[in-house]
Structure formats: structure tokens, C-alpha cells
Amino acid sequence: MFSPEGPTLRELAVQALSSVEHGYDLLAPKFDHTPFRTPDSVLDAVASALKESGPYDDGLDLCCGTGAGADVLATVCRTSVTGVDFSAGMLDVARGRTTAPGPRVSWVRADVRALPFTAAFDLVVSFGAFGHFLPRELPGLFAQVHGALRPGGRFAFPVLAPPRPSSPAFWMLLGFDAAMRVRNAVWRPPFVMYYRAFRLGEVRRALEDAGFSVALRALPEFGARGDGSPRVRMVEALRMPDGDGDGDGEGDGDGEVAGVTPPGA
Known about the structure:
Elements: H1 9-16, H2 20-27, H3 40-53, E1 56-62, H4 68-76, E2 77-85, H5 88-95, E3 104-109, E4 121-126, H6 138-148, E5 149-160, H7 168-186, H8 200-209, E6 212-218, E7 232-239, E8 257-258
Parallel strand pairs: 1-2, 1-4, 2-3, 4-5
Antiparallel strand pairs: 5-7, 5-8, 6-7
Helix pairs in contact: 1-2, 3-4, 6-8
């Protein structure tokens, strides 16, 4: 699962026994060499899909980490790209990235549950971040994103179809979540990172309650499963005026895990 440039088992253990913020500070220098980073294939597919609805002026990468998602925004935004994360270590790595000529790029350290922006963006993206939020935090998080978007702005993120119960990946993710629950029951501070905590149907309802109109878009680069359902879809949540609009799209898809990239995906 890890390249030779990635973290050692001891480094991962130290990270897992830290808070989420400090754990990512420790992991930051080697994060891009772990399977926790969203694969380039997913980033490229989202960028391709967003080009069809763009261009946009100002974009925000929510929980930007080391900045891979900012590269997606740079392909579809004309004016500015902002990355926000609460890990100083991850942001230090992001600031060291080589950027091509294009929109201006800035990095902001902040808790995304209290975003320091109001109606500042036309597009918000997020990659692999939702496993770090408990279900009860979703409504507040989506309200923050809604407030950071201008009317008509878009919130987009990929969702992967969950592995079948007959597959080794299913049991690996189930075991990971179980281990994290045990860890958080006996150790403080908690480290919130769950791969199967959120269902797409729940995420969609929370988005609609926050004032978004929600649609689901298949990303054809990843093909379909045996039952014909997409392997990967993109959620597109449009900020509507207050009291306007209902969700639409391809159905709830309650089985999908929202915004989480499983190891090795």
C-alpha cells in the first residue's frame, strides 16, 4: 500500500495516536506517497467534468491537504484558487508546490467548520475529506460551504461506489473503521477518520437541507459495476436562493460512501 518514500509503520502509529491536526502535521512530508491521497485519475476526471460547466472565477479547495485538489481548480478557475486546511504541516507542503502560470493561489489555515469566507467563491471542491467529520457535523459543514459560495455557485466532490461484501476491500475498510472506533473509545484525543461513516443518501439530504439543489453525475472514466451503476460519481450541489429549488438527479444512491477515497482506490 505504501511506496518506499511513504511513512514507516512506527510513523503511522504515532500519527494514529495523535489528534487529527497533529497527526496530519506529522504525516504531511510523506502524505503524497500514501494511498490516502486522492488518485490522479479521480482528480483528472473531476477536472474534466467541471470544465463542461465552467469556467469559474474563484475556487476553494475544502480540506486541501497538500494541494492536489488546487490543481483541479487551476484548470477551471480564471481568477483565484484558495486552499483551506487546519493542518499547518499540510499547508507547508502545499505552499512548496510548483505552480504553473494561471490564477493566483493562496493557502489559508482555518477550521472548515468555521470558514472565514462569505459569498467569496463560484466553486468549492473537496477530495477525500468527509471521513474526518462525524455525521452530526455535516449540516454545519454544508451550511459553511453554502455561505462561502456566491448564489449560483457549485460544490462538487467525487463519491466512489462501496466495495461488495464479498470483496477483500469491504472487510479491510470495515476492519479499519472498527479499529478506529476502538481506538477512540480508549484513547484521547480522538482521531476521526472513518471510511464507511456516511452514506450518499444522508449527505444528499444534508446538502438539500443546507439550501443546495443536488445532482449526481457519473464519471465515465471509471466504467460501471456489474449491475450497471457507476463506479464513481460526482456530486454537484448548486447554491440556490433561500427557499428556492429541490434536489434532482439520479436518485439517492444510499450505498455510496461520500467523499472518501479508500486506500488503493
